[in-house]
Design brief:
With 421 residues, this protein is an alpha+beta fold. Helices cover 64% and strands 9% of the residues. The protein has helices spanning 13-16, 19-47, 53-69, 89-108, 116-126, 129-150, 157-238, 243-271, 274-277, 281-293, 315-336, 375-390; strands at residues 299-305, 340-347, 351-358, 393-398, 404-411. The protein has a five-stranded mixed β-sheet, covered by helices on one side. The relative contact order is 0.05. The model is unreliable at 1-17, 369-377 and 417-421 (pLDDT under 50).
Amino acid sequence: MRPDPSGSPPEDTASAADPDERRLATVMHVVFYVLLATCLVRFLQRHAEEPRAPWVIALTLVLALLYAIGGVPNARPRPERVRDTWPPAPRLARLGAVVVTWAVLVVVAPSFAWVAVPLLYAALRTLPTAAAYALVAFLTLLVVLAQLALAPRFSLDLVIGPAAVATLATAVFTHARRQADRQRALIDDLIRTRRELAATERREGVLAERQRLSMEIHDTLAQGLSSQQMLLQAALRTWENDPATARGHVRTATSVTEHNLSEARRFVHDLAPADLARGGGLEAALRLLAARESGADLTVRVHIDGGGRTIPLSDRAQSALLRIAQGALANVREHSGAGTAALTLTRLDDQVVLDVADDGRGFDPAADTGAPSDVRGHGIRAMRARMRQLGGTLAIESAPGEGAVLTAAVPVTQHTEETPR
């Protein structure tokens, strides 16, 4: 959605960007100037010596200028929801100036009547339905009167012909516009349904995962904590009278605590990427990923440039960088046609940087719209979201035929953590 520069209400981006609409508008604008030039040449060939010739030439130039700078060539079709409302006053005034200038020109030189054809198109695109039909009738009437003025005698076909052409053109345009509106509404319904279905599936997945975790926590951590509480309370009650029994309760509570700690660590490992859960940190996980992704068609190498630095990252930051590496390599395999890819992890004083480079066909990052149907665009959006959550940055350098480099940087000042003891 974006506002018209002339003050028009927001219009559908799809309508504004429809290539068929642009082509049709271009054809009508070319037809307008061709008809205007043809009528002027015809007039000068027959009436160049008449006193009205300078006025006709001046009106022709004014009409061409008004049509060029008056907004009519750039008038887009109005969305269906605002089609039966009047356009903004500036746009209406510009269309009115063009029509009035043409009408005056037809009165002075009736041979300019057929310039009305593209004006019919502009009226139907700009005005509410009733007003557009009224203006079409007015333009048709002027064409009929002009043809009768040029004819040596009255002829019925000079009345029926322009009226029939205008009626047919109006009917065809209206039918095509309604068909386009129905197709656009159908597409909008399909997109909305797909988004609702995706949202429903995400909600169901979240609820299922929450239920699984709640059952796991209840059956392990919650039960263990309850047992610890009971044992410690029992130890307090017997501590004075039976110290040996109390110490046994404490030892049992300690054993339950150790088991609960193991369960908590298992939960963390289950929620983290499997490669990180195996231990060894991000470097080892990247090497496992490279080995898994390498094959006959793609070779993935890993470079670790730490400069002697041993700056630890939080599990969340390591998980995000590993997920970005996985997504980037998936894009490389699916879209780039590369034979070689490289994962480079660089530890600096203030940040950890992951570079994913490939020698594939490359692409134009500025032209990548990230539409829902675009796998590459969806993956890049997810990567950017991960980096925003961590306060980091994501950059992509690529060009057609020159491969691509994706760079993800995480500030270490926000994501370091103490090594577990």
